[in-house]
Each structure stands twice: as structure tokens, then as C-alpha cells.
Amino acid sequence: MKDPRIDRKKLHPLENIIFISIASVLCGAETWEDIEDFGYAKFDWLSGILDMKNGVPSHDTFNRFFRALNPGEFEQHFIKWTQSIINQRDYEFVSIDGKTICQASKMNTNGSIHIVSAWASRNNLTLGQVKTAEKSNEITAIPELLESLMLKNCIVTIDAMGCQKDIAKKIREEKADYILAVKENHPILYDEIRSSFSMLKSEEFLPPIEADHGRIETRKYYLISNLKYISQAEEWKDLKSIIMVDSERIHKKTGEIQKQIRYFISSVTEVEKTATGIRNHWGIENKLHWVLDVAMNEDKSAKRDGYAAQNFSMVNKLALNLLRKEERKVSIRRKRKIAGWVNEYLWKILGLINP
User: Fold this and answer.
1) DSSP codes joined into one string, 58-93
2) 247 plus 316 within the same structural domain
3) Which domain holds residue 329?
4) pLDDT per residue over 163-207, tens digit each?
5) How far is CA 81 from CA 92, 267, 307, in A?
């Protein structure tokens, strides 16, 4: 990557700053001070890998570097690296969703820091990210993210914010299929889908009942390929089906019953495949956004200057990808602790950077 620093300020090599940052986040670092402390704690180990003749960079050095680093270039390198380690045979369902870094947004005078990410559900890996000024700008950010990814033969799922004709067209141009959630923000389309399911015969798929986390959940998936009641069907690129999901959740402890009906449009006609895509979409919330907030405290990050928050989010995702690719069957939290305690385990995880 291009070093954003001027030559007379390059006391510490770029590779030292990047490597120490990634290694420290793998071991639990959350702040610039944490990264500096990691450098001193692991100085002997780092000296066997890097040229540490000028010592450990200060926390201010890490901060200045990442707030100046071009995030677009960093993200492109991240995408190329992720594609090199992904299992292409399983690279099938890609979920796209946005997340606001709350604390950094509150402290940022330039507005919210909202990042749209792409998640490969079968590989449990982040594929890439794009920063937007705010949630409403996801519509313009999603096509940019789609263009940067290798999506051929994938099925892309996006929530109602991304249910746009241009986005459907972009997905098909990338030789992928789409499943887009439809809500009242498209009132005519929403009503026509509802009417179709009341008047036309549908295919159905009933997956096994799920009983976990104190809940019993039943989902029924219905698909219709006859689009005669969808007045603008031809305006949606390669639209081939509409989908209804009828779900019921029973809380074992209270007996409370929650029911929900959701609608989708898709370029896919196999009801079971659409059911898998819709179900897997929640992985981006549970396995990415939740982990970033709970295991890595990203939501409490106060980084706000320049590109610091955006770039550090990328470091977090890079570390999370490395942790998920490591095969030990323990939680992310435990892997980070072990990596901090055992140099051999940390090196094993970092070895995945060069597959």
C-alpha cells in the first residue's frame, strides 16, 4: 500500500505499523494505546519478525497513520486478500447490510460513520466494506461495493433499504442473483405481492422447526413464479419470483407468541434455495455486527479523526476473518485470549495472511 506519511516522518516502516496493528487486535487490542502496549509486551517476539531497530511506534503514530491512510486502497487490498482465502465452492450466499459505529459517530463533527459490509455466510467471512455518510446513503454505496466483489454465481441478499431497481440490475450485471426484501417503502409492489399470494398457487418449503435459545421457531416459505399481478415486473432486471415468509416464534419461558410475514422479490425460482438465502442473511447481524460490537467493542470506539474509524473497522474485520479461518472450535473471545498468551498460536493465525 502507499504510505500516507511524508518521508522524514517514516521512523517506523509501514509493514511494522500494519503488522503490529493486526497482531494486537487479534489479541484483544481496541485502542491506539492498547496497540502500543502490545508492541512493548511482545517486543522480543516482534523483533524476530520485523525490523524493530527504532523501537515500538507510539500510540500517536498509529493514530496518525490510520487517520491518513487511504481507506479505498486499504479496502481493495482487503478484498483481494479475502478472495484468495475463500472457499470458492461454498461462495454462494452474500449478505449486504450497514452498521453505524455509534460512539465515533457521536464524536464526529462531520456526521455519522456508517459502514456497509458484504458477508459470505457459508464461509463466515467479511468480503468487503464501503463507508457512507449516513444510513440513507446505503443506496449509493451498495453498487460501489457490489462492483468491487467477485459475485459470479452467488446469491446476494439485501434488506428493504437496498430494494432498488438499479441495485437489482447491478447484481445481475455482476452475473449474480438477488433476493431483496420488500416493505411499505414500495407500497404498490408490496400490495401486489400480498394480492398475488391471496389469489395464486404457490410452491412451499417447510424447514424443520428450530428450538434454541429459549425459543421455538417455525418458518414457512412460499414462492410464486407467476408475476401477472406485478405491474412493474419488467422494470426489475430478470425478476422471476416473489416470496412470502410466514414465521412464528414461541418464547418457552413466557409462552408469548410472535408472528411475522415478510415479502421478497428474486431472480431465483427454487423455493428451497431462496429459503436458505433469506435465513442466512441474518448471519451478517449475528456473526459480524454482533461480534464486532460485543467481542471487539467496535460500537464504543471513540476513533473519529480523518479515516481512523473506517480503517480500524477494516483492521477489526481482517482480524475477525483470520480468527474464523483458524480451525479451533472455540469462541472468538477465547481465540483472542489464547493468541495473546501463546506466541505460537498467534503466529499460526497470522500465517493465514499468506495462504
Assistant:
1) PHHHHHHHHHHS-HHHHHHHHHHHHHHHS-GGGTTE
2) no
3) 7-71+304-353
4) 999 999 999 999 999 999 999 989 999 999 999 999 999 999 998
5) 18, 29, 21
Residues 186 and 265 in one domain: yes
**Length of the chain measured in residues:** 355
**Cα gap 6→103, rounded to integer Å:** 30
Write the pLDDT tens digit of every residue in 4-44.
988 777 889 999 999 999 999 999 999 999 999 999 999 99
Torsion of Cα atoms, 158 then 160 then 164 then 167, to 10°: -10
Measured CA to CA in angstroms, residue 295 lies from 26, 149, 182 at distances of 11, 27, 32
Cell of 319: 482480524
Contact 46, 20 (CB under 8 A): yes
pTM: 0.85
User: Same domain for 202 and 248?
Assistant: yes
What's the rounded Cα separation, in Å, for the pair 176 and 167?
12
